[in-house]
Known about the structure:
- The chain is about 55% helix and about 5% strand.
- It has 18 helices and 8 strands.
Amino acid sequence: MKMRIExxxxxxxxxxxxxxxxxxxxxxxxNFPISGLTAHRDFIWAGAAIKKAVANVNNxxxxxxxxxxxxxxxxxxxxxxxxxxxxxxxxxxxxxxGTSHHMNLNEVIANRACELIGGVKGDHTLLHPNDHxxxxxxxxxVFPTAMRxxxxxxxxxxxxQFDALEKTLHxxxxxxxxxxxxxxxxxxxxxxxxxxxxxxAYALTVRRSRDAIAAAADDLRELxxxxxxxxxxxxxxxxxxxxxxxxxxxxxxxxxxxxKNLFESMQSMRPFAAFSGSLxxxxxELTRIANDLRLLSSGPNTGLNEIILPAVQPGxxxxxxxxxxxMAEMLNMVCFQVMGFDTTVAMAVQxxxxxxxxxxxxxxxxxxxxxxILSNALKAFTERAVGGxxxxxxxxxxxxxxxxxxATVLNVLIGYDRAAEVxxxxxxxxxTVLHILEEKRILSKEQxxxxxxxxxxxxxxxxxxxxx
Length: 468
């Protein structure tokens, strides 16, 4: 491999001649051979978007000559398009605050910009990664700004998957409107419900989780770009922060706004904790729903078997014909992982000190991973599981007819204590509540038929013995 020699403040280092990254990136590769994981595509895009906007603003302010600014903008645009993704080689577990990744970005853009104005990679006399690409910036304001923009870019896809799941659950709720079954509380027989009512609750839960995530993302629209190293804005033009927010808003077609306090925007990672927490809370609900579907589909001969999940793959290497609720199991595992990612984010958020939180790289890595796997999991779960659910109406009807929860209807008619005796007798004699009521002549057949009509039992109302 042909090499070139590059120099930084620590000395010289050999860099592959073909590489667009430079000496500081090469040092980071030596220092941090940790996980093999590198920056998320959306985070690379976000950083390049900032560099493109910075070059434009600095040129407008007369701080960067037009030729260099145009080359930087063009190079940054190519990075945004994904042309140089392979050049972002710094491990996600790296130097505090993300300086290594930031210099990786500066070097790639600088070397590509050099080529665009007739130079060669590594010729920093023409265009320098620090002096030109990074003019008026610091990792400390660029990195958290890129974090915000990356999340906002990935957000629509995640919200779309929540929307799709909610829509599919609503469709199932409508399809199961007339499927009556026994409700269950404490996993014991309870008053009747319809399968449609259960699914309507799942749909609303998904909607509320989706809305909570969208609301938590709003604070991420506030950008602290222009704070420079510590929030003072040293080495920046006073007009720079507002111009950057305006330029980025137009470039990215986002509703962005300046930070109220540049010092706070670098000290506090609270918006990221809130957003990660909204993902965790959504996953708590998704886990519950997935577990309900696993329980409702359990069996088929020794479980509840009230719904049938699509068979998407064989379930056992030894038991022929076995089919497992694999899509729900997958969603469970993804949700557990997101909860773990959130714990890491929480620990990192509280670890900031004085003017800076240096744990930003692990915060954005975990949030972007959460968004990616959750979005993919919801899509697969919706399409491969929920969309194909069917109701086992015979089983649901059987459980309804045999539920001891039917005795609840008798409370206002014969009193709680006598109704409890009916329930206990039905349980002891292995008969239905309705059978005991008729056998003991507590109610007539006509009264039983009227009082225990499915459409009455699953709606508000107080039973009455009309015509009794």
